[in-house]
Amino acid sequence: MLTLYGAGLIGLSVGLVYLLQYLIVHFNISSGEFVPGAYSAVFIISFLCNASILVPVALHISIMMTAASQWDPILVAFIASAAGTLGEISSYYAGYLGKRIAITKDIPGYNRFVDWVKRYGVLAIFLFSLQPILPFDIAGLTAGVSRLPLWKFLLPCWAGKFPKYIVFCYFGVGLLHFLPLWFQPLG
Predict the structure, then answer these.
(1) Is 179 in a helix, a strand, or coil?
(2) Using 50, 70 and 90 to split pLDDT, how confident is the model at 113?
(3) How many CA atoms does the CB half-sphere of 139 hold within 13 Å?
(4) Of the spans 47-56, 57-66, 174-183, which averages the highest pLDDT?
(5) 71 near 38, Cβ under 8 Å?
C-alpha cells in the first residue's frame, strides 16, 4: 500500500511539472511571472491539507515538489512547513477542546501516542512531525488532549516539518534529473 501511495505521489508530481512546463511554453510566459502565485498556492494548499483532521492528503507534497522544480526549494519548504504547522492547529484544538471525544481509545497506538507526548512532550512532537509515514494529526490530537501549551506544540511541529519538506523538495527536483531524456520536462 505504501509503495502504491509513493508511486501515485511521484506520478502526480511529474504530471504537475509537465503541466506547468506546458503552460510556460504554450503561453510564452517566463517562470518568474508565476512566482507570487506559486508560493501562494504552496502556502494555501499546504495549510488546507494539514488543517484536515485524520485525512491523509498528500496533494501538498506534490504541489511542493512541483514548485521546487522551478523555484527555490528551501523557500518552498519554508513556506509549506509554516503553512502546514499553522494548519495543524486544527488537530491540536480538536484534541484540546474535544478532550477524549475527538479521538477514541480504539485507534491503534493511541495510548502509546498519549504516553509519549506526556513523557517526552516537545521531543515526541518533533519526532512525529519529522517522520513521513504516520499521520501527524494523531500527535496534534494527543498534544491537545495532554494540554501541551500551544507554543510547545507549534515550534517542534515546524522544526520537524521543515527538514522533512526540504527532503521532499530536493527529492522532487532530483527525480526529474533521473528520468529518461524522452520524459524530461518541455523547454
Answers:
(1) coil
(2) confident
(3) 28
(4) 57-66
(5) yes
Q: Which of 162, 160, 164, 176 is nearest to 66 (CA)?
A: 176
- 50 has a pLDDT exceeding 70: yes
Q: Quick one: angle between helices 59-70 and 150-178, nearest 10? A: 60
The pLDDT score that the predictor gives to residue 78 is 96
C-alpha separations of 162 from 80, 166, 168 in Å: 8, 6, 10
The C-alpha atoms of residue 110 and residue 184 are separated, in whole angstroms, by 44
* 160 grid coordinates: 520537524
> pLDDT at position 180, please?
56
What is the helix (H) or strand (E) element at residue 56, kind and residue range?
Answer: none
SS3 of 150, please? helix
Q: What are phi and psi of 161, to 5 degrees?
A: -70, -40
The distance in angstroms from the start CA to the end CA of the chain is 35
Q: CA-CA distances (angstroms) from residue 131 to 18, 24, 138, 152, 161? A: 29, 34, 13, 18, 8
- Segment 90-99, tens digit of pLDDT: 888 888 887 5
Q: What are phi and psi of 54, to 5 degrees?
A: 60, 25
Q: Which three cell numbers stand for residue 164?
A: 522533512
